[in-house]
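Help needed: design a sequence for this.
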């Protein structure tokens, strides 16, 4: 068994070791710097709760040592690289730091292998797994080469200073969030909506919170050029309507406009592996991970219709190995995938967004239970935290005959002024299946992981209501949701929690 792993350096020359995007330039360094930003916020909040700094002026400003912070991130990255190599060795997997491309469905050409002294060679296998991931898109405007990508950000030798972030993906907003939390001036240029593919009600909550913290957003705009001058790099932008234009000056331009599957150099057609117009690998039967070539499989970010999340690729790989070599038939359910966005105030979700749920099942079969709340930790007046900033939403699916039940119930009470307006009022909660959970608040990722198990087993809304909450926590809010969105009632809570 062999593993080919090769990283083509970014246009800025950034490269890394074994472990892929997540370990080296994605989830891990992102979460670490997000935590650094949260620690800075916590230090500020602690002063309102009685902590004093002895021997320093009350208005003393905390500053971040960027070099020290990224050095610690690099230590974690290099430690992970080493541990992966050890794990491969212990499991008798030959690690080849080289580029692989397909010759046919059972043959891979190995190139750029330094140990082979420039000579290409072939290796064969009964089964071949393709998981090249993706690389950041280029910024194809005049001066676009002056920008960097998230691949480069985590290895900058000095603070990026003033930053313009181009894009509205989770990568764009997470980076904008922790950079601002580290004390930097940040502007985000957004072409259309925030966080495409995520629940849009919560996407807008994230954007509003970031703007209130001081991150500047230029919405409905695209960059048209970048020029470098004595004052820094100037990004010229215009509105998508063509009615407005402007410029913003920064020290660093972070291009976060999406990623492209790293399949172009893999000669996949030679093996009969089909790709779409985006370069994504096609797997006709999604849960099987089989490509259009016999014996060739694909998992991860480069596969069409698959969430671009590390745990998804890991789970898909484990299940595929069990199917190929252990007689298993288990497949991955791509509908029930928990995830979190580590913006300054975090967002966690599992299951369907409200938009996807209503598009799939129709308004009559979908209800949303909602709440806007204030964590107990934010209740002391001295913190000046906005009331009811955090939010929870549970989406439930009603039975096929929900609309008929509603019509019958409305007819039964006609004329008395208490007609139900949505089927969720007449369908027992035991028949309301939870199909999506969304939370915007502290520790959202930690909260959502446990609820993912509940959705995996098809939990009903009655089970949620019958569960006892842990008090006082923000996670318990899902147990006490009572306001139906269809009712039009305010979702704001008067008490902190519970």
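Sure. Designed sequence:
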């Amino acid at each position: 068994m062999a593993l080919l792993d090769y990283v083509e350096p970014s246009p800025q020359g950034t490269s890394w070791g074994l472990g892929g995007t997540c370990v080296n330039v994605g989830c891990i360094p992102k979460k670490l710097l997000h935590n650094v930003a949260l620690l800075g916020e916590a230090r500020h909040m602690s002063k309102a709760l009685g902590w004093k700094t002895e021997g320093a002026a009350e208005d003393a400003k905390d500053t971040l040592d960027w070099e020290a912070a990224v050095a610690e991130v690099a230590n974690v990255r290099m430690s992970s690289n080493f541990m992966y190599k050890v794990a491969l060795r212990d499991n008798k997997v030959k690690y080849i730091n080289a580029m692989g491309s397909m010759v046919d469905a059972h043959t891979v050409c190995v190139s750029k292998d330094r140990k082979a002294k420039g000579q290409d060679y072939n290796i064969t296998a009964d089964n071949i797994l393709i998981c090249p991931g993706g690389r950041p898109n280029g910024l194809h405007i005049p001066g676009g080469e002056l920008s960097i990508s998230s691949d480069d950000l985590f290895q900058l030798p000095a603070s990026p200073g003033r930053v313009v972030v181009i894009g509205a993906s989770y990568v764009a907003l997470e980076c904008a969030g922790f950079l601002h939390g580290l004390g930097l001036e940040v502007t985000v240029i957004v072409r259309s909506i925030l966080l495409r593919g995520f629940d849009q009600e919560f996407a807008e909550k994230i954007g509003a919170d970031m703007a209130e913290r001081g991150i500047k957003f230029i919405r409905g705009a695209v960059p048209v050029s970048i020029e470098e001058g004595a004052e820094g790099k100037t990004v010229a932008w215009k509105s998508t309507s063509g009615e407005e234009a402007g410029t913003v000056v920064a020290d660093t331009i972070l291009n976060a406009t999406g990623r492209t599957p790293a399949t172009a150099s893999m000669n996949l057609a030679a093996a009969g592996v089909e790709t779409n117009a985006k370069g994504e690998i096609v797997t006709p039967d999604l849960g099987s991970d089989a490509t259009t070539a016999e014996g060739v499989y694909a998992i991860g970010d480069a596969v069409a219709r698959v969430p671009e999340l590390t745990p998804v690729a890991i789970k898909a790989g484990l299940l595929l190995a069990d199917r190929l070599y252990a007689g298993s038939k288990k497949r991955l359910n791509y509908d029930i995938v928990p995830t979190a966005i580590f913006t300054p105030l975090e967002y966690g979700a599992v299951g369907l967004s409200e938009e996807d749920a209503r598009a799939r099942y129709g308004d009559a079969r979908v209800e949303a239970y909602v709440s806007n709340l204030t964590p107990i930790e934010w209740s002391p007046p001295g913190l000046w935290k906005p009331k009811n900033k955090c939010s929870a939403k549970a989406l439930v699916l009603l039975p096929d005959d929900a609309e008929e039940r509603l019509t019958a119930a409305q007819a039964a009470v006609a004329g008395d002024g208490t007609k139900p307006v949505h089927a969720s009022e007449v369908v027992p909660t035991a028949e309301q299946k939870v199909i999506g959970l969304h939370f915007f608040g502290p520790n959202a990722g930690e909260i959502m992981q446990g609820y993912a198990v509940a959705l995996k087993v098809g939990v009903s809304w009655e089970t949620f209501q019958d569960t006892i909450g842990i008090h006082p926590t923000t996670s318990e809010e899902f147990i006490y949701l009572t306001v139906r969105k269809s009712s039009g009632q305010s979702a704001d809570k008067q008490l902190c929690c519970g």
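The chain has a mean pLDDT of 93.
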